[in-house]
Amino acid sequence: MPVTIKDIARKAGVSHATVSRALNGSPLISQETTLAIRKLAEEMGYLPSAAARGLKTSRSHVLGVIVSRIGNPYFGEIVQGIEDALKGTAYSIFVASSHLDAAVEENIVRAFGEHRVDGVIVATASFSRSQVHLLRRYGIPIVAINSSSPQDYRFCIAHDDVYGARQVARHLIALGHRRIAYIGNMRAAQINHDRIVGFKQEMESAGIALDANLMINLQWSEIENGVEGMTTLMRRKDRPTAVFCFNDLIAIGALQVAQRMGIRVPQEISITGFDNITYSAYTLPALTTFDQPKRLIGAEAAGMLLDLINRRGSGGDDERAAPAARLLRGKLLVRESTARCMS
Amino acid sequence: MPVTIKDIARKAGVSHATVSRALNGSPLISQETTLAIRKLAEEMGYLPSAAARGLKTSRSHVLGVIVSRIGNPYFGEIVQGIEDALKGTAYSIFVASSHLDAAVEENIVRAFGEHRVDGVIVATASFSRSQVHLLRRYGIPIVAINSSSPQDYRFCIAHDDVYGARQVARHLIALGHRRIAYIGNMRAAQINHDRIVGFKQEMESAGIALDANLMINLQWSEIENGVEGMTTLMRRKDRPTAVFCFNDLIAIGALQVAQRMGIRVPQEISITGFDNITYSAYTLPALTTFDQPKRLIGAEAAGMLLDLINRRGSGGDDERAAPAARLLRGKLLVRESTARCMS
DNA sequence: AATGTGAATGCACACGTGTGCATCAAGGAG
DNA sequence: CTCCTTGATGCACACGTGTGCATTCACATT
Fold it and tell me: A130 — contact with chain B (CB < 8 Å)?
């Protein structure tokens, strides 16, 4: 059995209330007893019980984080950013992978609810609306990251995908490409949509007609999906001269397919990624991509959530609080997988 | 304020004790009241408070997991395996990254302690001994994964690195290589040591003398370290014909350096990785590596930890319980980055 | 009718912590 | 000397849940 404040109280010859106050730095307690008690607590190896404290204060000091798949480096960096922002605060995080599976999502939300997490960061490509409502019903504030359905959330941190996609598309067009394919992930509804919008905007303003045959949308965005998408694309008679991939993982898959088929990148075909995960700098050729400020996004989301939690604590009303959304921009990263169109 | 069993009790016209029993399926309560109460709880959106329950039962139903860096795909898969094993149980996990930083480790252990996690899985390349003792002092059972200092732990799941390294080395030797370099990570003490041992064993039994100049040990094992190690290696006049890398990340870095220098892989130099992370299948050439059963390792660790927790619950004495260690073996994966030695 | 039996439920306390209120001692003002 | 203020501490309850024990009721047994 762990040491409790009662044990300390007994040993110090005071009441447990005094110990509680001393440890929390209450001004009601004289400095000398405070010091004596703290020293004793240290010696006895006392650790406050988060459960008991949470029960009393109805603050768990835990945030829930939902990602599509931990192990995906993109989410890894987001979580990293969240940890950065939480450093120095009393908060810990529950990280859970939804695998875009409704049943799993349900379990996660239940677990978050039972543990009375103080807030949730939803950073998954898609998340069922009913679970959002459930969380709201529990009174748990939510901040969404790059939400696929922003209308479901009142607080949001997002990357400006339209802007990013435009930069990438403009880059390809400036290189003389006109037959540009797009390999996307339809499960990431809003994000995919925004990137397509940015892509189309640039194509239109350059006066290039879109070829529906070159627009591919897959069910996921892992490397293997890039392989799949690129393969069907390369089977077409009239191949594109450039491929705009939804993210770096797809691009890595696409890159491999091209090289296996003996198509030189970037001489014969240009390939772009998106997100700038670490590995994209180490492919050969190194991937041209759009550098999304992932850590910053995670940190901002955590910051916003903490604000929300504290505001609520001070009597503010969630329902009436103004919705907030931050849109962050990244930067085009031209590396080696893109070159002037030669055909 | 969330719904409590008292709210349910009031509405159902029974005592809160009856509600508690009904929800927990106690045989003391008649079937009809049980059903009625459960229905009511469902309607009212009741969620048990993990804090209150934990306070009473002194079981948090939370496991702590410490990894070096979440975002490293190797640990991502380990965590995946842990999640697999926990599916269907009432357990959730706290995942924390130590970044191999002692101060961070201390915070993590404190957080785990305050939350009274039922057990901890240590899956980081190195973890300070004092923190292990602290956890033990708190009475929290620990299972280590691939521990760098197995003597510190009584329960361990490990990959047979000596065996694995031997397979890799044997493969390279069979291809005719004699000047084989090793790029390692000295921070991963035991693991690195075992892989070196396996490597040496095969070299010796093949009658090949080791060249100390070809043994490089770095401070970390990320891609950039592979770049660093390979660069210094290639500056030597008398280059190796094969490079045995500590893990896939280092190998990916090494691969890139070779190719940037115009050294063809595997024609001029063979490179091997270790672990078989997803990306290793998509480099060009695809990496020859040793497939470590990462998910299985994670799952086995979780299973062992649950056993430990339950045994303790049933009055067994931790101190006298026999230490247990499982050694799992993987399989050599020959892909394209290795070939017959041509010099 | 008195007693025993078993099933179903309520009472009351405990877990570890925080906090409003009462209590107590010391000392200054009247 | 009494009253009041100030500072320091204890008492007792609360948070939401689980559980040993007592209680109640119905029914069967003597």
Answer: no
